[in-house]
Amino acid sequence: MLLPVRYLVVGAGGHAQEVAWSLVEHERLRGERTEVLFFDDALPTGPLPSGLGPVAGPLDAIADHADRRQTRLVLGVGLPGLKMRLTARVASLGLAWTTVVHPRAVIGPNVEIGPGSYVAADAIVTVNVRLGAFTTVNTHAQVAHDGIVGTYATLHPNAHVAGNVRIGDGAELGTGAVVLPGLTVGVGAVLGAGGVALRALDAGVTYVGVPARPVRRTRRRSA
Ligand SMILES: CC(C)(COP(=O)(O)OP(=O)(O)OC[C@H]1O[C@@H](n2cnc3c(N)ncnc32)[C@H](O)[C@@H]1OP(=O)(O)O)[C@@H](O)C(=O)NCCC(=O)NCCS
Q: Are residues 85 and 122 in the same domain?
């Protein structure tokens, strides 16, 4: 009998468990069996409350479980800076990254989703959209037509991106943030929860409010 595909989840916090749940739901509908193991430097080994799988060890322990062909990595963190650091830490293992799309996400035609990305339940990505590698489109977030979302960028729950918007690498749109049509969000820019961008957002700057105004240069947050 074929062994189940083994998914090694980088991170084991609440977000990691949401990603794993989405993956398991997707694979269950396809009739695939899965084995999920979580890795996190900050959590003890043992079962997780969601029952999705155990914490098998810190990140460095991934190497001990990467011994078979049917083994894939899953990115279980959502903040751009953390995504960059953790993907760099496991890059030398050479394992493939899984793209996780919850079966209740709505994905239109001509949409590309890069490896290691996550599109959550009730997210909508309409038509002619490019999501780069390691992007996050969380629950109820929307990316409208002809959008480009750069590598490592994150749309938190309910963030709405209008048509023809370009989101730079590593940018972050907080919960309920809105970007109006045709705008550019610079590399590493942050739009805080509930903010509405009426103009282009400069690279590396944090904005809040309606209309969005700069707070200060973005410092990379780690949690
Ligand atoms: C914008 C954000 C990144 C700033 O975080 P930070 O760098 O830690 O900044 P601070 O909390 O020190 O706030 C800086 C200032 O901006 C204000 N501010 C922060 N977030 C704001 C927001 N969303 N809307 C309006 N003002 C906000 C603070 O009140 C503070 O104002 P002050 O200088 O007058 O006191 C953060 O507040 C935010 O909104 N993050 C989005 C997180 C999110 O949506 N997560 C979803 C997880 S599922």
A: no
Residue 221 lies in a domain: no
For residue range 80-95, what is the model confidence (pLDDT) as tens digits?
A: 999 999 999 999 998 9
Q: Which atom of ligand 1 is nearest to the CA of 156?
A: 46
The reply to whether 105 and 209 lie within a common domain is yes
Domain span at residue 28? 5-97
pLDDT at 170 over 90: yes
1-45 confidence digits (pLDDT tens): 577 889 999 999 999 999 999 999 999 999 988 999 999 999 999
Q: Is residue 222 part of a domain?
A: no
DSSP string, 155-200: E-TT-EE-TT-EEPTT-EE-TT-EE-TT-EE-TT-EE-TT-EESS-
> Rounded to the nearest whole angstrom, what is the distance from the C-alpha of residue 192 to the centroid of ligand 1?
6
pLDDT at 219: 57
204 secondary structure, DSSP code: T
The span from the CA of 170 to the CA of 63, in Å, is 27
Domain final residue pick, 65, 81, 97: 97
The answer to pTM > 0.90 is yes
E-strand spans in 18-138? 34-39, 46-47, 54-57, 71-75, 100-101, 106-107, 111-113, 118-119, 124-125, 129-131, 136-137
Which residue shows structure tokens 């590598």? 151
Q: How far, in Å, from the CA of 62 to the mean position of ligand 1?
A: 34
